[in-house]
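Predict the holo structure. Ligand: tetrahydrodeoxyuridine.
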Amino acid sequence: MKKELIRAALKARENSYAPYSHYQVGAAVLTDQGEIVTGCNVENASYGACCCAERTAVFKAVSQGKTSFQAIAVAGGAQGRAPEDFAWPCGICRQVLHEFAGGKGMTVIVAKSQEEFVEYPLGELLPHGFGGDSVL
Ligand code: THU
């Protein structure tokens, strides 16, 4: 399943719209029900309107009624090349993932390929994340 999720992220990366940074990212979330939803980064001439691949995937899934994820795979790198480094999720995306972490927490897989990847519990990448229990 891990390799399948990475494959989906790499495939989604092909649709990355990154004419400004030329840095292409793909992501794939795995819902608690075992479905995969993908996303890519979508840039904009007004740079602040850019959206990361992770948030594209999460927001697509949530818009389909899927709000609880057990894992996410992320792969990114310079346009036209296979990922050469690990593309770590940015801070905003970590916070968004925290909102939708499944019952057993979420695993974040950062991949260069299906063979070369690292994985961390989201809690290690975002300790003391801000959650709904603070505001409800
Ligand atoms: N980017 C992502 O898609 N995910 C991240 O976690 C970090 C950065 C995108 C945003 C922008 O389109 C490009 O990478 C360069 O920052």
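The chain has a mean pLDDT of 96. The first helix runs from residue 2 to 13.
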